[in-house]
Specification:
By secondary structure, the chain is α/β, with parallel strands linked by helices. It folds into two domains: 141 residues, Rossmann fold (3-Layer(aba) Sandwich), CATH 3.40.50; 71 residues, ACT domain (Alpha-Beta Plaits), CATH 3.30.70.260. 28% of the residues lie in helices and 20% in strands. The protein is built from six helices and twelve strands. The chain binds ribulose-5-phosphate.
Amino acid sequence: MKWDNNIIESLAWGKAITRKEEKEKVAARIASMVTDGDVLGVGSGSTAYTALLSIAARIKVEGLHIKAIPTSLEITMACARLGIPVANLDEYRPNWTFDGADEIDPELSLIKGRGGAMFREKLLINSSPKTYIVADSSKMVSRLGEKFPVPVEVFPQALTYVGEALRRLSPSDMNLRMAENKDGPVITENGNLILDVWFDSIPPDTEAAIKSITGVIESGLFIGYPVEIIVM
Ligand code: 5RP
């Protein structure tokens, strides 16, 4: 039985999608790589979402059977709207994953997590035999931290302790991420807070140094991961 008034069906991407043409080209490339029976890890952000729309179009025309393992609530809802069955990591290992990025440096290291989903994104990427990072050309930077802070997901009661420990890594600035349409801070899907940490330089051991702090759930640094980049 179907709902008469389905909120999910009227959902679209919240904001205008920037560089839409570039994202649609990357999306078409990702959709062309899907084969019948694939279990796909689906990252978050507008580029991953655009790729999901292209995949849904192929499913509709060709009747492909795929499953998605989403990394965020908005992608889970998009799957519901598009009729794409979702699965989880207890049931399946993804055949491959696609995801977006905020920054990509010349060594293909990444900053992710503008959307706040970096914990599940890293879990999916680490679980996948192959990951494609989909991006428009504005994401290419000469050094990580050029345009974006490193997001750090923090267990709420550890906020002050973690802030203190992060200060020892000499950030140039650090802010608690505040919500836009809610009072107070952003609360992640895991019930945690996000510290956005700006660095003038990010040595390769920064990811491990951040992760070693008690109370840090995950950071949006992805240094040296075996990803393939698809940029248009
Ligand atoms: C969300 C992410 C996104 O993949 C990243 O922010 C890129 O988003 P967009 O494709 O909208 O630029 O890491 O946590």
